[in-house]
UniProtKB/TrEMBL annotation:
UniProt key word Transferase: yes
Domain GST N-terminal: 5-85
Molecular function via GO: transferase activity
Keyword annotations from UniProtKB, A to Z: Transferase
Taxonomy of the source species: unclassified sequences, metagenomes, ecological metagenomes
Record InterPro entries: Glutathione-S-Trfase_C_sf, Glutathione_S-Trfase_N, Thioredoxin-like_sf
Membrane-crossing segments per the record: none
Record Pfam families: GST_C_2, GST_N_3
PROSITE patterns: GLUTAREDOXIN_2, GST_NTER
Protein name: Glutathione S-transferase family protein
SUPFAM superfamilies (alphabetical): GST C-terminal domain-like, Thioredoxin-like
Length: 258
């Protein structure tokens, strides 16, 4: 019999929005089981489970309750498992506003890295199939010539949108640099969901060594190599510092394959 109180987190290994919720759960000590989905194969299960016309991860499920979309998940976790130390009531509005601004650049970050990343088919396929069953791996590898253009279309991975993404990321990096001059944490004097959101959504650019995908030398060179203009910025150094100080070990328990 399944345990209806158990929390399942559906993710994709490379997803930075998934990392945001994984980090929040780890930081708050909320027990969960991670179910890692294979890109492309994730589409139908997430569409059906989410019930919102969206195919995105992360999604959490407890019994028959399913919540998709990271800010909605944060709200639901606070309601069900709160009070959360990463969401202090006295600064809630400010924290949520910062969460919103970094959530808004997540897709741009993915767009920015995938444009050059797609030149490295073997790396992309290895990452995409890390948790794939043998048949999923065969489908994704054989279907790559179709999946890749569909993915590029869906995520608007083209030079025009990548240029817009670069400007937006740059603006947020500058905002972050000004903010961290005021203190180590974005709000107050301890880690909040504002820091977790900013650090996890910028992590694919900052490549903290704690992250099992972004921290590899191959990812750094082939995907994040384009982010040279920010590589040594105080903002991305802050991301690495926050990971080093607060992230702990990612995947203490390896995710289940779907
Ligand atoms: N607003 C969503 C965005 C999530 C998102 O874009 N997730 C990406 C992975 S980082 C995804 O699932 N992409 C595949 C898809 O859209 O089907 C959230 O905050 O959870």
């Amino acid at each position: 019999m399944s345990n209806t109180n158990a929390l399942t987190l559906y993710t994709i290994n490379m997803s930075h929005y998934s990392e945001k919720i994984r980090w929040l759960l780890d930081y708050e000590g909320i027990p969960y089981v991670e179910q890692a989905l294979t890109p492309a194969i994730h589409t139908l299960p997430m569409l059906l489970k989410g019930g919102r016309g969206q195919t995105t991860v992360p999604l959490v499920q407890r019994g028959s309750k399913r919540v998709q979309d990271s800010p909605r998940i944060v709200d639901w976790l606070a309601q069900e498992y709160g009070p959360l130390k990463s969401l202090p009531a006295e600064s809630l509005d400010e924290i949520i506003a910062i969460q919103r601004r970094f959530d808004a650049i997540g897709k741009g970050v993915a767009r920015y890295l995938y444009l050059p990343g797609f030149a490295h088919k073997a790396l992309i396929l290895d990452i995409w199939t890390q948790f794939a069953t043998p048949w999923e791996s065969r489908i994704v590898r054989a279907g790559y010539p179709i999946i890749k253009p569909m993915f590029k279309l869906k995520l608007k991975i083209n030079t025009k949108h990548v240029a817009i993404a670069e400007q937006r990321i740059d603006a947020e990096i500058k905002w972050l640099e000004a903010r961290i001059k005021q203190g180590r944490y974005l709000v107050g004097d301890s880690l909040t969901i504002a820091d977790i959101t900013a650090a996890s959504l910028l992590a694919p650019l900052a490549c903290p060594e704690e992250h099992p995908i972004y921290g590899t030398s191959e990812f750094r060179e082939k995907m994040a190599g384009v982010a040279k203009l920010w590589a040594d910025s105080p903002a991305l150094q802050w991301v690495r510092d926050i990971y080093a100080a607060h992230r702990g070990q990612i995947w203490q328990v390896m995710p289940n394959a779907a």
